UniProtKB/TrEMBL annotation:
UniProt cross-references to InterPro entries, sorted A to Z: Epimerase_deHydtase, Lipid_A_modif_metabolic_enz, NAD(P)-bd_dom_sf
PANTHER family, A to Z: BIFUNCTIONAL POLYMYXIN RESISTANCE PROTEIN ARNA, BLL5923 PROTEIN
Protein name, UniProt field: Epimerase/dehydratase
Boundaries of every NAD-dependent epimerase/dehydratase domain copy: 5-225
Amino acid sequence: MTRFLLSGANGFVGQALGRSLVANGHWVTGLVRHSGGCPDGVAEWLHATPDFVGIADAWPAGLAPDVVVHLAARVHVMNDNSSDPDQAFRATNLHGTLRLAEAAKQNGVRRFVYVSSIKAVAEDDAGRPLREDDPAHAEDAYGRSKLAAERELISFGRSNALDVVIVRPPLVYGPNVQANFLRLMDAIARGIPMPLGAVRARRSMVFVGNLVDALMHCATDPRASGQCFHVADDEDQTVAELVRSIGTHLHRPARLFDVPVAWLRLAGHITGRSAQIDRLIGSLQVDTSRLRQTLDWKPPYTADEGLAETVNWYQSTRSSHS
């Protein structure tokens, strides 16, 4: 049994990870800013101060985890209204992360698993799946804050004998998913036509069940020590293939029509939505061979199984509200 402290335990990935850790016999405390939402069996530690300010002084007596899995973050948003997005993201994703790492080290934590993002590296793959050692070219405030946190954590870990493991997922989907993936399922369910039939670029994604399994390996396997890993499903789909797959599981026809990719880019430029369009039509594949080879890891779910589970959840929530 390993003792875990899980930040963001009441979030999308945190809930799934907490349930899996408990089911596997581990002891889990969830560090959250808002009370409620932790899975059964996860003890709640409420620390409401933004950016983990005062976390070391607030550390509960007797709390002695072996591993911290740090999921809590200021997440990427499409339209950020902050006057200084870089500062806002760094306050949480960099400075808050370092506060938690320092407090963890002071309280005997051996391993700190940092859930970063592929956006710390790049927004596209330039024709080859992204590897962990590729030069990083983070393009927005969120990605830059994640990259800065990775670098500072590695430095802190080396100076303070804290074992830091970094995990970079691409887009995560699964039951309870929100944001763009949920809006995509809504659009397909409503039969809205989409001009994406001509998009051939492939994008890596990861089902939350596969990410959780990888995080458990990264948290407990001695071979993960000091490593950075990319994680994704076993299959990368084009957005058109993704829409068709979701439509199949929804028993709804995918209403796709072809528009040249150049026209889509032009529309994005004209409407000020170039970033959103690029995320639909650009190629972003990740190389997961380091994770597979170092930890003998393979995704426990196929991409189709992950989509089926996600759609089943979606249909159950919609039927309960009808």
